[in-house]
Amino acid sequence: MVLAAPAQAQAPAEVGQWASTMNWPISATHASLQPDGKVMFFGEFDDGLGPPRRWDPATNAISSLPVAGYNIFCAGHSYLADGKLLVTGGHLASHEGLADASLFDPFTGTWTRLPDMNDGRWYPSNTTLPNGDVMVISGEIDGVGDFNEIPQRYIAATKTWKNLTTAKEEIPYYPRMFLAPNGKLYFAGPGRETLWLDPAGTGSWKAGPKSLFGKRTYGPAVYMDGKVVFIGGGDPPTATVEMIDLAVAAPKWQYMAPMSVKRRQHNATLLPDGTVLVTGGSSGNGFDNAKKPVFLTELWDPGTNKWTKFSSNKIYRGYHSTALLLPDGRVLGAGGKNTKNGELFSPPYLFKGARPTVSSAPGDVAPGSTFTVSTPDAARIKKVTLIAIGSVTHAFDMNQRLLTLNFTKGNGSITVTAPSNNNVAPPGYYQLFLVNEQGVPSIGKMVKITIVSASSPSAATLPDP
């Protein structure tokens, strides 16, 4: 058991603070932050047939949502440009996937069935594309190793599917897929062999740079400012961390500072100040070793390449656990196999003084533009970040990405430069944060990144990998 007794005696401004456990009716095996700041979650096994729940962080109230009409456990999910959640595949039995797909509308709380996919998908990954379409990759069909090898593109405008027939490839389930600045999709793992997917036409794969460690199964990977960071994972688990910069001409993996403890089945959450919070997991060998729980919370700062130990939570968060950044800067840790509860972590930045205020900001932001954010704290703003709203399951958030924005200070406002194009910022809802000189973030302001036509100069891409 990995505890942190010395850290727990420290002040919250140094190590943060976990709140009391919240008992919930189902395990939050799949969790998504809605554009209204509430959390939609659904459970494991037969709970995937029942009603998803919606939790309101402001009131702590939980309500039931309509059922999808089939078992959405083990589905993939990501957000469309309009804020609807695309849910792909589902659970017939272990390693047997459904071909079903649906849209969940968080504004009306309703489901819309879509045409079936080309075959079953159990553990697929969704990746939003620059024009708002979504690429769905992998997932098992009818047994262990029976992977759906044909990627499919969800055409958002027509609610139809397109098979990438020339991109047939056996890709492991819940692949760590990311939209890169060049407009291609990067398959980062969990194995050493990585790939680039060109989604144009009927698709094509190209070999990518090999990562350094072996298989990082059930290890999270995150995207921040063009870089992918892969943290821990594997069996036996590792504490190692590696990073690749997808924005350079010749990307290659490099080791970063390791965590203080090895982990698998953990979660990694992007924070407003540009750091990465790691929670939960197991340090033991085997699939989901609850006898070796990791309760210690750790934070990685990419600016210093250093890890800091934070306070420990109380509940083992392993297989089927999730973690999400909330608009108020707290992090929800929830779920786990047969674990029907949640915990809230307040990072140290919430104990370091008054937070900046966002008086007003535009609801829609076009890539390549500049926009004004009114704030009485303009003189003290040090950083501005955008974080795409999270949608997480099985140690991987398919939707979160962090972008650091340039800005200039004015009198009572700042002028912010939006991301250059939709390759950098795929369309959809993001949380906009202002961070002051003490590292304290504002409340996240929901903004929608709009779609800029590919013919626009601001949508130009980097050279091919």
UniProtKB/TrEMBL annotation:
Residues 55-188, 243-341 form the Glyoxal oxidase N-terminal domain. The keyword Acyltransferase does not apply. It comes from the Bacteria. CDD domains: E_set_GO_C. Keywords: Signal. SUPFAM superfamilies: E set domains, Galactose oxidase, central domain. The keyword Signal applies. Residues 355-449 form the Galactose oxidase-like Early set domain. SMART domains: Kelch. Signal peptide: none annotated. InterPro entries: Gal_Oxase/kelch_b-propeller, Gal_Oxidase_central_sf, Glyoxal_oxidase_N, GO-like_E_set, Ig-like_fold, Ig_E-set, Kelch_1. This is Galactose oxidase-like Early set domain-containing protein.
